[in-house]
Design a protein that fits this description.
Layout (H helix, E strand, L loop, with lengths): L3 H6 L5 H4 L2 H9 L6 E6 L9 H12 L3 E5 H9 L4 H10 L3 E6 L9 H20 L4 E4 L10 H18 L2 E5 L10 H11 L6 E2 L2 H6 L17 E4 L26 H10 L4 E5 L4 H4 L3 H18 L1
Parallel strand pairs: 1-2, 1-8, 2-3, 4-5, 5-6, 7-8
Length: 307
């Protein structure tokens, strides 16, 4: 008879044993479920133009745990004569964690000179973020203008991870659903696998998973370390998938995405998860920014409570 110990030992080799109820029970008992925290990506209230300090004040008053800022807003704030030291103190005093930054350095492009410049830009931005206490930065395929060699992209991501370790700010591999050259979870997973690095992290998004045709079952393949930040939003069923744009995103739970399934998969994979509200809805931009931020947080918490 197959013993419990031998079944677990051969778990990765035999799919039949993986289906065994006893093995699944043993694995699940030893696995910790994810813990969620809540973050505001400032795109959600970008249209109201509250300014960098306004973003921080609104996120804090609304009750978020953390914030995702955009590098351009930070640079504009500092260009106006404000100091890095003062900004770091303001973020700390607000009670918010500076979880991640949205940037667009062209680190993945094929053109060697542009890629070198993109890596220099990324290093400079990482160093700035490190001085502000941020430990992550989004790393999309910004600037790519032709089909990607995913093996080369993986090598470039490996180099970016090395830069992340050097600066203390780790790049989160991001994909955009409407972007023709890097839009699918399968592409992201291949680039991550080619990088062959324990610090690989991906940054998925409810809307982008739908818009790019990835669907959501691929999330079940990932362990908890692969995802630290997950962008929260929803899509409406009344617009064909190929016609949807960022502006069509709605509050989580107000659309057609299988939110309970998504959050359950994130919970089951383990590891702490930062749920970051990222919207570009122009109707929301016409409303009071604090009301929008509070509404989004309430809807995310409600969905998490339901699972």
């Amino acid at each position: 008879m197959t013993t419990r110990r031998s079944a677990i030992k051969t778990l990765g080799l035999t799919t039949g044993l993986f289906a065994s109820a006893g093995v699944l029970e043993a694995v699940s008992k030893n696995k910790k479920e994810s813990q969620f925290s809540y973050c505001l990506n400032t795109s959600t209230i970008m249209g109201q133009k509250p300014g960098l300090i306004g973003y921080l004040d609104i996120a804090s008053k609304a009750g978020y745990d953390g914030v995702e800022l955009w590098i351009r807003d930070i640079q504009e704030y500092l260009a106006d004569g404000n100091s890095v030291t003062g900004l770091r103190k303001y973020i700390s005093d607000s009670g918010l964690k500076f979880e991640n930054t949205i940037g667009f350095a062209p680190w993945m492009v094929d053109d060697e000179e542009k890629r070198k410049a993109g890596m220099v830009q990324m290093e400079q931005e990482m160093e700035l973020l490190a001085s502000l206490g941020c430990v992550r930065v989004a790393a999309p395929a910004a600037g790519v203008t032709a089909p990607l060699d995913l093996f080369k992209a993986g090598e470039r991501y490996k180099a970016l991870l090395d830069l992340g370790r050097k600066t203390g700010v780790m790049p989160q591999l991001e994909f955009w659903g409407a972007f023709p050259f890097f839009h699918h979870l399968g592409q992201v997973l291949m680039v991550a696998a080619v990088a062959n690095d324990p610090d690989t992290r991906i940054l998925p998004d409810v809307y982008h998973l739908f818009r790019g045709g990835s669907g959501y079952d691929g999330l079940k393949m990932l362990n908890g370390a692969a995802i630290e930040i997950f962008h929260m939003n929803d899509f409406v069923a009344s617009i064909p998938r190929e016609d949807q744009a960022d502006k069509d995103r709605v509050y989580p739970g107000d659309g057609a995405a299988p939110m309970k399934e998504i959050l359950t998969d994130l919970k089951n994979m383990g590891g702490n998860k930062i749920l970051s509200l990222e919207l570009f809805n122009q109707d929301y931009w016409k409303q009071d920014a604090l009301t929008v931020a509070k509404t989004g947080l309430e809807k995310m918490r409600k969905l998490v409570n339901e699972i």
